[in-house]
Every structure is written in C-alpha cells, then in structure tokens.
From TrEMBL:
Keyword Membrane applies: yes
Domain of life, source organism: Bacteria
Span of the signal peptide: none
Subcellular location: Membrane
InterPro entries reported for this sequence: CBS_dom_sf, Peptidase_M50
Annotated protein name in UniProt: Peptidase M50
Organism: Acetohalobium arabaticum (strain ATCC 49924 / DSM 5501 / Z-7288)
C-alpha cells in the first residue's frame, strides 16, 4: 500500500507493518506504533538521502517494522564504497536518534516511558539491520567488502549462504525458546523473512551482474581510464566461472592457457560479455578462440 511520495520516491507499507500497527492499536498502544513507524521511516529516508547524494536513483521504499527495502533504479552494487555508505546510513540514523533521546531523558526533556521505548526501538532497528544477511544493511555492507576481493557474483553467493545460515540459526533459537516456554513470534518472522529473501537475491544476482558489466563499458568511455586486472584461465573453463571473478572498477584481460600452461590466446572482458550474451553462460573459453 503506497502512502506518500518524498523526493520522487514512493513510500510503501509492507503488509507485515500493517499487522504490527493493528496489533499495537488493538492493545491501545498507538503512541508506540507511531514511534515504531517514525523510526523505520527515518531509517529509510536516510538511505534515500545518502543514495541520492551519491547520484543513485530510487524508485520505491517498502517499510517493514524493522526497517525497509529500497528499490534502486541505478546499480548501487556497481560501487562498493557507495553501497557501504548508503547501507550504513540507516542504522547510524537510528543510533543517532537513540543517543539524542538518552540526552533528552538525562535532562528530563521527554516523557520517560516514550523515551525509553524510542531508545529500545531504534537500537533494535539499528542492530537488526546490521546483521550480515541480505537484504539487510549489514548484508549489503558485507557483500560490498567481499566484492572488492571476490567479484560481485561470488560475493553475493557467499553472503546468501551466510544469510541462510543466520536465518536457520534464528529460527532454531525461536523453537528452542518455545521448548522452554518462551515464544517470540518476531524471531520466526525474521527468520522466515531473511531466508525467503535470499531466493530473490539469488534470482537477481545474474541480472544485476549483467547490468553492471554492460555499464562498465559506458563507464570506461566516460572516464577514459579504468584499472586493469589480468586473469589466467585454462581453456576448458566455463564463461560463468570467469565472470564470477570480475570486479567493479576494473577492466579485465583474460590470458587463456592449455593444460600444459602454454599461452594460446588473450581475450578482453568485452569479448567475454559478448559471448555470454550470444552463447550463454555454460560455454567454455576455448569456444571463443
């Protein structure tokens, strides 16, 4: 459900958020619902501001009880540094709000009950979003760091694997709590949300990879220079394995060798991408020679 448009970005309420608001309303806790909504809203608004400040367009933000998910119309993943800055902005906003409220309570500027709830809410939103799981902010930061070392596709696969382990761990902890008489439905919801989200991230992985590889050519034309990285590849290697090693901000040349490690050809990143688009991801490098 869309509720407002800010800075050209549509703000949408997730069904889960509506359920939480209704629960708060049923128990006559609408004041706390407002605090929860406001904290999540400011969290995402900070993401929007930082992304736009770095030239990244955003189409839509979907608000969840513990933050939100933004839909970017530019490839944020293309620049790990920008992705880290944008991802960290939300949790830092919540930590800032919590710190301000601590000061306000110290000098009795705010109602203690509401103030303590606001502090707890913002700390929960901040630290939850810092978990190294996609599509949370912590997962995006982790992937951005790993992208520099492994390339985008490999970094995403590693982060998805970590996300699933984390989701299963949270789910198991929720069930253990149930066994001992302490049941927290939010833990199960969080586990379900993270685990199911990884499948969407996995589906989008190759699409995002292709977009950023194609944009890199345009980037080279605009900037006139990119760092070059050389890969040595045995001729029977499949194209998809080569592309997994490609990194943002670098142009790649591929030295092809036979089983005796004799150099038989040199290919460029552009030739690999063209072959990928025309012949698919499962052909071998030797088919390009």
């Amino acid at each position: 459900m869309y509720i407002i448009k800010i800075l050209g970005v549509k703000i949408k309420l997730n069904l889960l958020f509506l359920v939480v608001i209704l629960i708060f309303g049923y128990f006559r806790l609408l004041d706390k619902a407002v605090i929860t909504f406001g904290s999540a809203f400011l969290h995402e608004l900070t993401h929007v501001a930082v992304a736009k400040g770095n030239g990244i367009g955003i189409d839509e933000v979907e608000l969840l009880p513990f933050g939100g998910v933004a839909k970017y119309n530019d490839l944020l993943e293309l620049d790990p540094k920008v992705e880290i800055k944008t991802a960290m902005a939300g949790p830092l906003c919540n930590l800032f709000l919590a710190a301000v409220m601590v000061i306000c309570l110290r000098y009795s500027f705010f109602n203690a009950g509401w103030g303590l709830f606001l502090i707890r809410t913002n700390l929960v939103i901040a630290f939850f979003n810092l978990l190294p799981a996609l599509p949370l902010d912590g997962g995006r930061v982790f992937r951005a760091f790993k992208t520099r070392q492994l390339g985008f596709r490999q970094a995403t696969k590693l982060t998805i694997c970590l996300s699933r382990y984390l989701a299963v761990t949270v789910g198991v902890l929720a069930l253990i709590g149930l066994w001992f008489g302490y049941f927290n439905i939010m833990l199960l919801i969080i586990a379900f949300f993270i685990y199911t989200s990884t499948f969407k991230e996995n589906r989008n992985n190759i699409y995002i990879l292709m977009r950023y590889l194609n944009q890199k050519k345009q980037r080279l034309k605009e900037r006139k220079i990119l760092r070059n990285e050389e890969l040595v590849v045995i001729e029977t290697t499949k194209i998809k394995k080569v592309i997994e090693k490609f990194k943002p901000k670098s142009f790649h040349t591929i030295m092809v060798v036979d089983n005796d490690l004799n150099i038989i050809a040199t290919l460029t990143e552009e030739e690999i991408i063209t072959a990928l688009l025309e012949l698919g991801i499962n052909i071998q490098i030797k088919d390009l020679i």
